């Protein structure tokens, strides 16, 4: 029967061409939306690497204070912040803080330890941070060590902590990256001293990039970090916020400070990241609705036009259930034709590595889109197939 | 219930054949007190009025009567495509009224072949695929066997060379021969033909009639044929006349 259905639908391909094209286009749109959705979901399932509840971000501006004085004021500010009984920890950081939409990327070469050959890396998120960041953000160290007092002394190599993603990029064979070297042009090379699970400041929905931390040296007078991540004690609220911004103004002449909670920043970022996919999703729902109505209408019309044929089939021995299954089978065969075309297009994406999306995400999206269209076709065919099953063969044959 | 039609006579038993019977045997179809009433909100139409009829194995019976006298309804009921309003239909001695849709479909598939005035071929299927149709609904017949039997049936009707053609590429006579081949492919005991020559010219009509006669004579297929052509009807073993839903001779 399956062969018969394929033969019948193939012979009717001209009459059903528009329907097949409609299914093909619906597949393409669903595949695109499915790829975006699957990609977001795959990103969401990966560890964020830090705990942002009870963490505030304090940004300060230095006004007209001479630069040479700014470092001293910053140290005084940090000391006062740490001394505040409501503050559990404070870490200086560059502006690429979690959920801030800021990033700082670099490209380095991976240096092979045995022959010193270099292999270029992709973009790496680089974080200049105070050593207290690990405690403030509850970073999980999985190998090696975090920054310590010994790292405050400038050595031959800059000590860096990397995340597991960068470790995998450096050594795809699964070796440990500890003591591995990352070299740049006209700058000191970095030596890996530790590995953390992750630090995804771009949020859960963004494709994570490899990350690397460099400690801000206590006596550094070249780079003035103007953000502080503060872990505050539970129950802290507006009063502490006011107190801290007042402290900034009091300590630094002409300085101003603003505070936002990472929870609020996270909410804003999630909303922004989800807006486009949700819009696309809504549009695809409307598209599917149109496809569904189209399928339903065409099927209904087909049943009316084919009463004679269905009557003959009953006369030849088809049961009412068999007719119902045939109508359902026909639409599934048409859907298969449309999907075959769609899959031909879709499979090019993983083959060509479009957008650097993982192939398994493309294949999952193909499966989801195909499944959704088969489900849609089945639902749309249910009522017309019941109509077809209810046709009285004698009446249908007489009408012919 | 208003009976708009009155029967000219009451029911009749099977009449003697107008042509010599060739091996008429057991009753394959037995209709007893068959009535068929079509009812709408405002009107009630009696299509068949208390019909008693026996069709024996190997008979070639023709049914004549004016348009609207119930001939096609009779064929539909005989072919298990329609249910009588009252009365009993027995196929091979077994009443079929209580049969489920599935059982009726199985009986139609195994026992009965249909030939229609307007052929009722599926235009989007090749001749061979059309002829395979009854076997498609029969379990236990594989694809190769279906093809072989469809080829054999087409050979019988002289269309072995047209298997790949589509109905639209054939003449009316050829289409009807395909329809007959389709009826034959399932090797049914009974062929019910509803005006099989009605859409054909006299030469084509003769061809089809000869084919049906040959089938009946050589294979012993029981045939019930509705026709308006007296000459063709006289070639069959028995002629039954209908008027206003009742059998009159």
TrEMBL record, chain A:
Domain of life of the source: Bacteria
Keyword entries, A-Z: Cell membrane, Membrane, Transmembrane, Transmembrane helix
Topology of this chain in the membrane: Multi-pass membrane protein
Start and end residues of each MacB-like periplasmic core domain: 23-245
Chief location of this protein within or outside the cell: membrane
GO CC terms: plasma membrane
Protein name (record): Putative ABC transport system permease protein
High-level lineage: Bacteria, Pseudomonadati, Bacteroidota, Cytophagia, Cytophagales
Automatic annotation (TrEMBL), chain B:
SMART domains assigned: AAA (SM00382)
Keyword annotations: ATP-binding, Nucleotide-binding, Transport
Residues in ABC transporter domain copies: 29-249
PROSITE patterns cross-referenced by the UniProt entry: ABC_TRANSPORTER_1 (PS00211), ABC_TRANSPORTER_2 (PS50893)
Record's GO cellular component terms: membrane protein complex; plasma membrane
UniProt keyword Transport, yes or no: yes
Keyword Transport on entry: yes
CDD domains per the UniProt record, alphabetical: ABC_MJ0796_LolCDE_FtsE
InterPro entries: AAA+_ATPase, ABC_transporter-like_ATP-bd, ABC_transporter-like_CS, ABC_transpr_LolD-like, MacB-like_ATP-bd, P-loop_NTPase
Listed GO MF terms: ATP binding; ATP hydrolysis activity; transmembrane transporter activity
UniProt xrefs under SUPFAM superfamilies: P-loop containing nucleoside triphosphate hydrolases
Pfam families: ABC_tran
Sections of the chain in a coiled coil: none
Family stated for the protein in its record: Belongs to the ABC transporter superfamily. Macrolide exporter (TC 3.A.1.122) family.
PANTHER family attached to this UniProt entry: ABC TRANSPORTER ATP-BINDING PROTEIN YTRE, IMPORT ATP-BINDING PROTEIN
Protein's name in the database: Putative ABC transport system ATP-binding protein
The organism of origin for this protein: Hymenobacter actinosclerus
